[in-house]
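Hi Y.,

Following your request, here is the sequence exactly as I used it, all 191 residues.
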Amino acid sequence: GADVTKNTDIYEFSADIDYAKTEANDHATQHSLLFDSQYDWLLGESPWSIFSKFNLEYDEFKAFDMRLALNCGVGRSLLESELGELKAKFGAGWSREIGGPDKRYVPEAAFGLDYKHQLTSKQKLTAEAQFLPEWESFGSYRVLTDLSWEILLDEATNLNLKLGVNDRYDSTPNGARPNDLLYSLVLLWKL
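Below is the corresponding structure, written out as tokens. Let me know if you'd prefer a different format.
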């Protein structure tokens, strides 16, 4: 995987790609690729911002080959201190499954919370949750959550240890598992 972030006084940009392939007893048990990117336009000193978020999901064990999703909307900082930040987001967009039984562009609402907390000078906690219901039927929805804990191991080389948990839930899985829980323990080298 790889993460890219760029923060300025005008915008915040992040992109993340994660690839996983595992086997047990010579049988594939996981084969997925997740790509997320987000661009936040900051509105000066205002707690409000405008966001655009793009997701690409490939999973060999889903009923589709790939899912694309694009959401845009407004965000508001609810809490901001030297140690942590909590943002709420609301917007709209669409998702589309490619290579599966559902060939529609699905209009979605987007509700989200982003939380970042600097636990100590060497430890950081981040959490993100998104609730993405279909506009036509809020009973059909997706929930995406991501939680990570980073520990700085070596300041000179900027080497970090990251423990991550990612959960993807789909209320309409079309015969596949509705819930996917991914966990990882990785070494990060920040440039």
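The chain has a mean pLDDT of 92.

Thanks again,
Q.
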